[in-house]
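Table 4 source record.
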Amino acid sequence: NELLTGARLMPLLRDGKQEGFIVREVRPGGFYENMGLKNEDIILRANNVNLNSPADGVKIFNMIKELDRMELDIIRNGVPMTQVFQIN
């Protein structure tokens, strides 16, 4: 349940095409904050899987449930980066 309520992952649309998810409403002390994500981070890829559709968002949730770490390609404050997040 924490995966569904700890933050909102909103589709990022550019020219009518999805190019990832924007992280919003990160709950203080919640799963996503503890993982290291911040409000307004843009997640482009998770473990080298492009996130170009709502169905890809479901892939994120399934990966999080099964793994203890996840590599995310994100944009934070306009800066592209790859970060490895521990999932506790």
